[in-house]
Each structure stands twice: as C-alpha cells, then as structure tokens.
From TrEMBL:
Keywords: ANK repeat, Chaperone
Residues in ANK repeats: 57-89
Regions annotated as coiled coil: none
Organism: Gallus gallus
Main location: endoplasmic reticulum
Organism taxonomic ancestry: Eukaryota, Metazoa, Chordata, Craniata, Vertebrata
Name of the molecule in the record: Uncharacterized protein
Pfam families xref list: Ank_2
C-alpha cells in the first residue's frame, strides 16, 4: 500500500481539515460524533442514523474514526457491522487507512470483520 507521502500529499492529508470543528458536516450527525470522539452520543445515533454514508472524500464513518485515531468510535462502528471493504475517493479501504497509521490493534479488528 503506498504511503500518503508517496501519493503526493502529506501523511493524513485529509485529516488537517477534518479535525476543525467548524468544517464538521452538520448534516451527518454520526460524523460529528466521530470528529468529537463522542462515543456515548454515537452509540445512541447508530440506532437511528446510517453509518454507511460517505463524505465529500468518499470516507465512511469508519474511515473517519480510523483516520482520526478515535478507537472507541471505530470499535463501536465495527460492532454495528460498519462496512470494512468500502473504498474512499482515493481508493483506500479502512484496512489500508489502519495500515497507513500503523495501528496494529485496529488492523486486527478490521481483519476480523
């Protein structure tokens, strides 16, 4: 899997803007919870909101949780059967993101799905 730097951008290139609360997509409440790391609210929203939505970069809620390092959110999404094989606009799956960030526990959790 090519690194973000090899692909012509900084490592985690999308993350810089993703972490700014003012840019959080308000029409996706699940995304807002993930940006804030609000596991408690996320666990409530998962029951009524879709977790397979994609943002303008093609990232699912699980992509975001993995990229932002919000492990509790990611594990909660995995427990609710978040899709792990979906690719974003750059062709990255959540597994590829976890590998890129070097998170061995997340890699294992994704592989178990």
């Amino acid at each position: 899997i090519p690194s973000r730097q090899a692909a012509g951008g900084p490592v985690g290139g999308r993350m810089g803007s993703a972490t700014e609360p003012k840019r959080c997509p308000t029409h996706f409440p699940v995304y807002e919870c993930i940006f804030k790391g609000d596991v408690r609210r996320l666990s409530v929203l998962i029951r009524t909101q879709g977790i397979g939505q994609k943002d303008s970069h093609g990232n699912t809620s699980l992509h975001l949780a993995v990229m932002l390092g919000h492990k509790e959110c990611a594990h909660l999404l995995l427990a609710h059967n978040a899709a792990v094989k979906v690719k974003n606009a750059q062709g990255w799956t959540t597994l590829a993101e976890a590998i890129n960030y070097g998170d061995r526990k997340m890699i294992t959790a994704i592989l178990r799905k």
